[in-house]
Amino acid sequence: MKKTPCLFALAVLFCSYTYAQQMTIKTLPYPQTKKVDTVDTYFGTPVPDPYRWLENDQAPDTKAWVKEENKVTQDYLKQIPFREEMRKRLEVLWNYEKYSAPFKEGKYTYFYKNDGLQSQAVLYRQIGDNGTPEVFLDPNKFSADGTTSLQGIDFTKNGELAAYQISEGGSDWRKVIVIKTDDKSVVGDTLIDVKFSGLAWKSTEGFYYSSYDKPKAGSKLSGLTQYHKLYHHKLGTAQSTDQLIFGGDKTPRRYIGAYLTEDERFLVISAATSTTGNELYIQDLSKPGSQIVNVVNNFDNQHSVLDNVGSKLYIITNIYSPNFKIVTVDAVNPTITHWKDLIHETKNVLTASTGGGKIFAEYLKDATSFVQQYDMNGKLERTISLPSVGTASGFGAKKEEKETYYTFTSYVYPPTIFKLNIASGQSSVYKKSGVKFDPELYESKQVFYNSKDKTKIPMIITYKKGTVLNGENPLMLYAYGGFGVSLTPAFSTSNIILLEHGGIYAVPNLRGGGEYGETWHKKGIKMKKQNVFDDFIAAAEYLIKNKYTSKEKLAISGGSNGGLLIGAMLTQRPDLFKVAFPAVGVMDMLRYNKFTAGAGWSYDYGTAEDSKEMFEYLYKYSPYHALKPQAYPATMVTTADHDDRVVPAHSFKFGSRLQEYQKGPAPVLIRIETNAGHGAGQSTAQVISSQVDKWAFMFWNLGVKW
């Protein structure tokens, strides 16, 4: 067949590979993954785990298996005829300057910038708004392959010192380096083995940080971490002499975080046993020898200190108020009985920040932003005018600042940074996105549909204006549904590939998330987890019924807890869609709590050890265990070899069993990123490569013309 030549320029003319769908892609034989005779018994029920050996992620045979699986995957993907043209198109789309909102430290204004295709964003600084920018830290020089990333930086109050964290290969284990900001010379030794930690400076003497002891069993990447501890590091001393401030053997399985109020008077400590709910402690550092005081002594609700004015603390909490409120209390008697409401709970979920001596109350209204400005006495001053319906984030600034910055985005509104005059409430554009995308050609709309139990679920659907809803449109359905996480509208450069090819992008806000507060969250946890899956199934059925797509044109995607969701869809409704992308998913619901900090997820999931009833519930929907021999949709499981949050063993075991049980013709691939973790810190090249492979696999298996 004659092939029409393709032209590629900024205007981009696409060739329709009409011949392509007549081709057959050959899948290499899947590796003959060995099986072992491991069996666990729960409440009298034997549970075979034939792929247990893959949990040893650093073992030579596991590494050899990873290479074999990646060979199968890459051999399949390279046969897709438009894959490289898709890569070129994504590189063009990605190749624009990207900025962060600026922040002020000492005499400098700092901001992040990526020139376009740099592996990592570079941290710049300048004096004032009009000074000449200079490179302060360039993570692209941290490693040859761009996989060592900058994962946060904290400055002393005077801006003279900074401590920054780096991640190697995407790991959650970090190193901390201290430098003088004037000449960037290193101060003292590099701290190692720091995990799940902020850095909180006290003057220029030192800082507080959190970490675990190294795992005694298993690899550093997968070993169980139980004893999170808060330390104080004094500059010029060895890390081995750092003072233990809080945590340890007497408080196992805690996540411990700490920060200081802006005036450095109060050390605030949060201790949690799960991802929901925390104890709250304070220490008045203005009084030598002062003790750590317990403010909240249980894990039933969430609380944090927003700010202080002298001894008056401002606390945001969801105690008796599942959508959150702001209270005040004197630090002399800080317990709950003395709290006074300042900003009351509303029907919309509240988060908050402070800046310029004001409180910015950021509300979620049906998963979109609504922002109000209050004075420190709780008086409403104004509602911040936002460009349209979408997501606004930022607003934090120091007390003396006269302006603050926020970023606004939506599915069709590229991220734009605004400067807000705090006194007048007027916003002005600070930085517009340079992405090659015309928002006027596309639209997003929010719909509400009924789940299985008639609960109304919101969903935002995005597509090109004029799209004919005839059931023939390729559609990507993406969701999360867990841990109180809210999915709010956000622009994605990668999604342009789908939208400009007549595709549709749909995001439902499932129960288990935080879009409607803690009540919404609790309707999707433990033995109500099936609500999450039912909400997603109902979203797919709504989209098919209303002819946005069809079963033959539907792809589904989710990562982490969302990867669990997609795994459950593969086992519960494999007939409902054509393509699936379970990414870095929690797939073994009986053993997730045995690795890294997984025990902290038990609030959402429950554990197999809790009770016979909980075990049976988890065993029934656990994706790894619920697989059976039958035909499954085209699936590409994705994970990374350095993921030490949701360890890759979840995906390794699930993918192996899915390959074993696949009785249909659709491919089952496992794509394993090397020198990468749970997602944060990936180089631009890694991100583009993963997105190319995702869209190429989806387009090919849905028969989408390029």
TrEMBL record:
<dbReference type="InterPro" id="IPR002470">
    <property type="entry name" value="Peptidase_S9A"/>
</dbReference>
<feature type="domain" description="Peptidase S9A N-terminal">
    <location>
        <begin position="31"/>
        <end position="432"/>
    </location>
</feature>
<dbReference type="InterPro" id="IPR001375">
    <property type="entry name" value="Peptidase_S9_cat"/>
</dbReference>
<dbReference type="InterPro" id="IPR029058">
    <property type="entry name" value="AB_hydrolase_fold"/>
</dbReference>
<feature type="signal peptide">
    <location>
        <begin position="1"/>
        <end position="20"/>
    </location>
</feature>
<dbReference type="InterPro" id="IPR023302">
    <property type="entry name" value="Pept_S9A_N"/>
</dbReference>
<dbReference type="InterPro" id="IPR051167">
    <property type="entry name" value="Prolyl_oligopep/macrocyclase"/>
</dbReference>
<comment type="similarity">
    <text>Belongs to the peptidase S9A family.</text>
</comment>
<dbReference type="Pfam" id="PF00326">
    <property type="entry name" value="Peptidase_S9"/>
</dbReference>
<dbReference type="InterPro" id="IPR002471">
    <property type="entry name" value="Pept_S9_AS"/>
</dbReference>
<keyword id="KW-0645">Protease</keyword>
<keyword id="KW-0378">Hydrolase</keyword>
<dbReference type="Pfam" id="PF02897">
    <property type="entry name" value="Peptidase_S9_N"/>
</dbReference>
<feature type="domain" description="Peptidase S9 prolyl oligopeptidase catalytic">
    <location>
        <begin position="490"/>
        <end position="703"/>
    </location>
</feature>
<keyword id="KW-0720">Serine protease</keyword>
<protein>
    <recommendedName>
        <fullName>prolyl oligopeptidase</fullName>
        <ecNumber>3.4.21.26</ecNumber>
    </recommendedName>
</protein>
<keyword id="KW-0732">Signal</keyword>
